[in-house]
Design a protein that fits this description.
Layout (H helix, E strand, L loop, with lengths): L2 E5 L3 H5 L9 H12 L5 H8 L3 H13 L3 E5 L10 E9 L4 H8 L4 E6 L6 E7 L2 H12 L5 E8 L14
Length: 168
């Protein structure tokens, strides 16, 4: 897959504490251009949004520095040696934050989301194989202080994975 932009708010913005960076319509248009093609030249973006190449470069750097977005290469996990993915629902006793922080620190945990509903946390785990997944769940996630239970949803086939939600 090609390089894409993963729009992301800073951890502070996601939790609702602190203030979000101010993003004007031109910056939103730049983000949308990069979501379509993360390798699009700044000159082409500038032409599309009415700015110079240098101005686009400065705005992109500011958006990166503020944690508003990341520019990354999005891969197909199967082609780079990660043959097992799963979503793991985690129930926690007490404060969820320390468990979420510990999961965030694990390389195999790609997404860690605090939720309302049947689980306190939903965690996407990407592993090399079933043995690796078992090790991560059984010896690393379930042994974290505060983890009461887990439920795993193993991916059988990935039908859609995009980061094209726009900027609303």
């Amino acid at each position: 897959m090609h390089s894409e932009v993963v729009a992301s708010r800073s951890a502070e913005s996601r939790t609702g504490s602190g203030s979000s960076p101010s993003i004007d319509a031109v910056s939103l248009a730049i983000i949308e251009q990069l979501q379509e093609d993360g390798r699009r030249p700044y000159a082409a973006i500038g032409k599309a949004v009415g700015l110079s190449e240098a101005a686009v470069r400065q705005r992109v750097q500011k958006l990166l520095d503020q944690g508003v977005m990341q520019i990354v290469a999005v891969t197909d996990p199967l082609t780079v040696g990660f043959r097992r993915q799963a979503m793991v629902g985690v129930n926690v006793e007490g404060d969820v934050d320390p468990v979420a922080d510990a999961l965030t620190a694990m390389a195999e945990c790609e997404y860690v989301v605090m939720t309302a509903g049947s689980f306190d946390l939903m965690v996407e785990v990407v592993c090399e194989d079933d043995d690796h997944l078992l090790d991560v769940i059984n010896k690393r996630i379930r042994t974290l202080p505060g983890v009461r239970s887990t439920e795993s949803f193993v991916y059988l086939k990935l039908k859609k994975q995009t980061y094209m939600w726009g900027t609303r």
